[in-house]
Design goal:
The chain is of the alpha/beta class. The chain is built from five helices and seven strands. It has a single domain, classed as 3-Layer(aba) Sandwich (Rossmann fold). The protein is 39% helix and 30% strand. Pfam families: Usp (PF00582).
């Protein structure tokens, strides 16, 4: 069975863990991995010394994770996309656009007060056009 596995990242260790799980699932399914990052406003930070400056945009998180995952497990096609908007909405839209087989999200903010305030995983699980896999991204 093949298909696209979509995962969202934001640069956090929790998101990295979810992306690693998604990569394993994509490989097992004989599919590809599509990494999505969402942002409300495209912000940037400038780093540098003297006249050497590098601008880092928050929309580059998906590209960074995609490249590093591609190096660790070759053989899986990996693509990435940066979308303006809320994370859950971006994941759902990309899954619909790609006719994805699966969306992988981490379980961050699904405990304690986060459950009351809502989480990306909860929103995706209730509105996804495909199956949803909630990866355990807690350290404990």
């Amino acid at each position: 069975m093949s298909g696209v596995v979509v995962v969202g990242v934001d640069g956090s260790p929790s998101a990295r863990k979810a992306a690693e799980v998604a990569l394993g699932l994509a490989k097992s399914l004989g599919g590809s991995l599509h990494i999505v990052t969402a942002f409300d406003v495209d912000r940037s930070e400038t780093f540098g010394v003297g006249s050497d400056e590098v601008k880092v945009w928050n929309s580059e998180a998906a590209e960074t994770v995609a490249k590093s995952l591609g190096e660790t497990r070759p053989g899986v096609e990996i693509s990435y996309f940066a979308a303006r908007g809320k994370p859950a909405d971006a994941l759902i839209k990309e899954a619909m656009r790609l006719d994805a087989r699966l969306i992988v999200v981490g379980n961050r903010r699904m405990r304690g007060i986060g459950r009351l305030l809502g989480s990306v995983a909860n929103s995706v699980a209730h509105n996804a056009p495909c199956d949803v896999y909630i990866a355990n991204t807690y350290d404990d």
